Recover the amino acids of this structure.
């Protein structure tokens, strides 16, 4: 089945080897070095999002232009994979620690079309990503909740290797990492888009004002 057909039908599709492993490793290396080399240096990026039970290191793309460039540059590829005209919203880097789980949740409106990309892990143990099989109702989309499991809903379990990505409809399908992270750390880049002319188009660029118009006086 073509990516776009599977994506529309199931709400997600695995993009195996979306990025070459050496490119994924190079991006991860430069990201880590720019954040810091020691726990003390990295501590300024530590956060405790409500959907995760342990602190993670996080970096918002608008504070790290290489991640934004990744997001913007992948846009034509993701348009092909979704079959939709898209505008990028935001990118987010996160490094999870050992034992972390990510609760079952759905995303905010800037995440109509989302990618979770596995950059690498200390031990390269698989840490499966899961996506619910039930499309959420409009009411569930509006009233987001985080839950420890999928309840009665069925879900798909997807193993990922470095460079692999899962493209998923983050607003309409719940997703999670239910098992405790088996690695000392694992690193992921999340990237999000909205339909260029769709109901969430106002979330373009995550509603950030690009600060000024470019000019090159000579
Ligand atoms: Fe999410």
């Amino acid at each position: 089945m073509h990516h776009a057909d599977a994506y529309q039908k199931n709400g997600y599709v695995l993009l195996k080897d979306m990025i070459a492993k050496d490119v994924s490793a190079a991006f991860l290396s430069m990201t880590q070095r720019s954040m810091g080399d020691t726990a003390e240096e990295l501590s300024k990026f530590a956060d405790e999002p409500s959907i995760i039970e342990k602190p993670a290191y996080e970096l918002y793309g608008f504070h790290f232009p290489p991640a934004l460039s990744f997001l913007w540059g992948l846009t034509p590829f993701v348009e092909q994979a979704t079959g939709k005209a898209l505008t990028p919203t935001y990118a987010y880097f996160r490094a999870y620690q050992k034992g972390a789980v990510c609760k079952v949740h759905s995303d905010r409106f800037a995440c109509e079309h989302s990618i979770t990309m596995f950059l690498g892990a200390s031990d390269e143990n698989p840490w499966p990503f899961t996506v619910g099989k039930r499309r959420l109702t409009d009411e569930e989309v509006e009233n987001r909740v985080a839950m420890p499991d999928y309840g009665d809903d069925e879900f798909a379990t997807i193993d990922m290797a470095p460079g692999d990505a899962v493209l998923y409809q983050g607003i309409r399908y719940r997703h999670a990492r239910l098992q405790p992270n088996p690695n000392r750390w694992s690193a992921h880049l999340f990237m999000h888009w909205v339909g260029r002319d769709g109901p969430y188009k106002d979330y373009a660029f995550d509603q950030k004002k690009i600060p000024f118009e470019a000019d090159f006086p000579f």
In short: Residues 105, 107, 170, 175 surround fe (ii) ion (CB under 6 Å).
